[in-house]
Design goal:
This protein has 26 helices and 26 strands. With about 675 residues, the chain is of the alpha/beta class. The structure holds pyridoxal-5'-phosphate. The site of pyridoxal-5'-phosphate has 15 residues, from α16.
């Protein structure tokens, strides 16, 4: 796969074509095979000229997929010609030509904001193709403004810019003479060269002169160079300074860590330039893919207003708009939004809210019920209602007591053989506790439908609904921790929707900003909110708040994230992909060490066992989950296991083709690693 550059300009008629040709020829003289592509051409013969001069042999349909006769902006020209534009055709041609040539020169149309299609300008095409841009600028008066505007816009739009070339320099007037130095001073990218004006440039002789000038004046190596981060140095410094979460640092210090440098769509790129499919949505947070235009722009726009202002005593616009929009889509009955920064704090807030609420109601309800295998975060309160021994036992002395009830872990349910009504039996403990002690119980906290962190334990249908009815019956609050299952993960916006449950308190975090920024929200009902109202001196205030509560940048990202669900019909498009995933997983069952496959929407856990018949587990020292994920990395997919459970949690925006890549890599990795054990 070759490298590529997108030649754009500060305006039309600045000399993009001729510079594309001259650069191509100069590269050829260096022994580098340069290809050429012009996705859109409106009138003129740029493509023919370039094809002839550069000796291009590729099919014209690839070199110039779209041609219109009228000398207009492509959007206007193709609309008038009633021609439909299919971007896929352009992406296909681009990828094809990139494969064939060492270096591909893609020429734009006019400048960055020239419309190509409805709501689609040249900058969008550069973004989608993910090519670095080269800006061609005029030499004379006016170029400072045009060039700096182009650069600023490119940056704000998230484009990479290799540099600027000034074309047609005569040195006749004072503006031309002073412009290069001023540009060097004001540009944030290099001025890669100044090309003198060449007479009759379309003639053989003229072009030859221009190529010579390119060789003399343009830093071609800078164009060819792929910026690579110094991986070795980064790794050394990471190991020297950074302590990673949930990581045995001894292993880390002995290992070869990947350093992620950038991302696009469903893929992450490491500091050596390798791309990997993000198979766990950057730990369950990413929704619409990385570098999603709408979210990028929303954050950038907010950045131009205010990055942070406090919610303690003041309001801010994105937090108001987001709260309104979340309440619109939340289970009916939830009316208020309390912000924080992460899932653990969202849960911490839920617990304190429930606890204090009952004090204001003059009851003695002070205890909580949680589930075995529950995970609600890592702060001390959240750990107290957690049920994963491994994560929690070290901190036992710090925790408050809480009732634990069975978790619907059907694969390892000891009662399964005895009780035909499996699932419902899990609620026996809950019923008993509520019957005996409901007057001292403040709330039941659950991860509805899927207990994620303990290995994607999917509940049988109906249990959650029954829990909610029991809570109502005994006047106990229901806290739904939808940090993992919320924001579309189960195929529905909230898991609670799937069983028609409105919890008293609902926690969202992970996917709320589309995977962009830390933000969480604890939603509750008018009734609970009202319980905190009173005179100032009565001290019924909810005494909780984090410094960055309701951060405007994070709320702006979340707003755009919710908007995208509507605009892109994310949940609708998810349905066939969930089915595709389900179908793809069927084949895994034939693997010798796959014990159980659990799926709810876009959450998948594949439990590996040493012995399928006895369900014997792999020992810790075998690190089987870790080894499978390491193997998957060799196949270009990033995964992160939960013990012996392999997790698949791709971004909701993943394509079917990418899903196939994910399934194939996971299958091969499991087969390879477990066939020796
Ligand atoms: C991840 C998670 C949390 C904790 O969220 P953080 O943002 O990591 O603090 C809480 N509850 C559930 C269900 C989670 O999956």
């Amino acid at each position: 796969m070759g490298k590529s550059i997108f030649i754009t300009a500060t305006d039309t008629g600045v000399g993009k074509t001729i510079i594309s040709c001259a650069i191509g020829l100069a590269l050829k003289k260096k022994g580098i095979d340069a290809g050429y592509m012009k996705p859109f051409q409106c009138s003129g013969n740029d493509t023919d000229f370039a094809v002839k001069v550069l000796g291009i042999k590729d099919d014209k349909k690839l070199v110039n997929p779209y041609y219109a006769k009228a000398p207009l902006a492509p959007y206007v020209a193709f609309k008038r010609a009633k021609a439909k534009i299919d971007l896929e055709k352009i992406f296909f041609a681009y990828n094809e030509l990139k494969k064939r040539h060492e270096f591909l020169i893609v020429e734009g149309a006019g400048g960055l904001l020239v419309p190509l299609m409805e709501s689609y300008v040249v900058a969008d095409l550069i973004r989608d193709l993910d090519i670095p841009a080269l800006i061609v600028a005029r030499a004379g008066l006016g170029t400072l403004n045009h060039t700096l505007l182009t650069q600023r816009y490119a940056f704000d739009y998230g484009l990479k810019v290799k540099g600027v070339i000034i074309n047609g320099y005569t040195g006749k007037d004072i503006a031309e003479k002073t412009n290069p130095d001023i540009l060097k001073e004001f540009l944030e990218v290099p001025l890669l060269g100044v090309l003198p004006y060449v007479k009759d440039v379309q003639s053989k002789k003229g072009l030859r002169t221009l190529v010579k000038k390119v060789e003399e004046n343009i830093d071609l190596d800078a164009l060819l160079q792929e910026e690579k981060s110094p991986t070795k140095k980064l790794v050394v410094e990471d190991k020297k300074y950074v302590w990673h979460p949930f990581t045995q640092m001894k292993d880390w210090l002995e290992g070869e860590p990947l350093i992620i440098e950038e991302a696009k769509g469903s893929y992450l790129k490491d500091s050596d330039g390798r791309w990997y499919l993000d198979g766990v949505s950057s730990l369950w947070v990413n929704v619409h893919g990385h570098r999603k235009k709408e979210i990028d722009i929303s954050v950038a726009r907010q950045l131009s207003k205010v990055a942070h202002s406090t919610l303690l005593g003041l309001g801010n616009i994105p937090s108001i708009e987001l709260a309104r929009e979340i309440i619109k889509i939340a289970p009916k009955g939830l009316a208020k939004v309390f912000y924080s920064d992460n899932g653990s704090t969202a849960v911490e807030i839920a617990l304190k809210m429930a606890y204090q609420y009952w004090q204001h109601r003059n009851t003695a309800k002070t205890k909580f019920i949680h589930l075995e295998n529950a995970y609600h975060g890592d702060t001390v309160g959240s750990v107290s209602v957690g049920g994963i021994d491994l994560f929690h036992k070290a901190y036992k002395g710090l925790l408050f007591d809480s009732y634990a009830i069975d978790s619907p872990y059907c694969y390892r349910c000891p009662k399964k053989k005895i009780y035909p009504l499996c699932g419902r039996e899990c609620l026996g403990g809950l019923k008993e506790i509520l019957e005996c002690d409901h007057s001292s119980i403040a709330a039941l906290i659950v991860e509805p439908l899927v207990q994620a962190a303990s290995g994607m334990l999917v509940w049988p249908d109906g249990i959650y609904k029954e829990m909610s009815e029991l809570c109502k019956k005994y006047n106990v609050l229901l806290i739904a921790d939808e940090v993992a299952v919320g924001m579309g993960r189960t195929g529905s916006m909230f898991a609670s929707d799937l069983e028609g449950v409105t919890p008293d308190i609902l926690c969202v975090a992970k996917g709320i900003t589309g995977g962009y920024l830390p933000l969480a929200a604890t939603l509750t009902t008018q009734n609970i909110f009202d319980g905190f109202l009173g005179e100032y001196k009565g001290q019924k205030t909810f005494f909780h708040g984090h410094t960055y509560t309701g951060n405007p940048l994070a709320c702006a990202a979340a707003r755009a994230n919710l908007e995208l669900f509507k605009k892109e019909k994310t949940l609708e498009k998810l349905k066939p992909k969930i089915q595709f995933l389900k179908k793809g997983l069927e084949g895994f069952m034939e693997l010798k060490h796959v014990g159980d496959i659990r799926q709810k929407g876009f959450m998948v856990g594949i439990e590996l066992v040493k012995d399928k018949r006895t369900k014997e587990q792999y020992g810790w020292e075998e690190k089987v989950g870790i080894r499978v994920c390491q193997k998957a990395r060799e196949y270009g997919v990033i995964l992160r296991p939960l013990g012996n459970v392999i997790v698949l949690m791709p971004p909701l925006s993943i394509s079917q083709e990418e899903l196939k890549q994910l399934l194939d890599a996971a299958y091969k990795a499991i087969r390879t690693v477990t066939s020796y054990s």
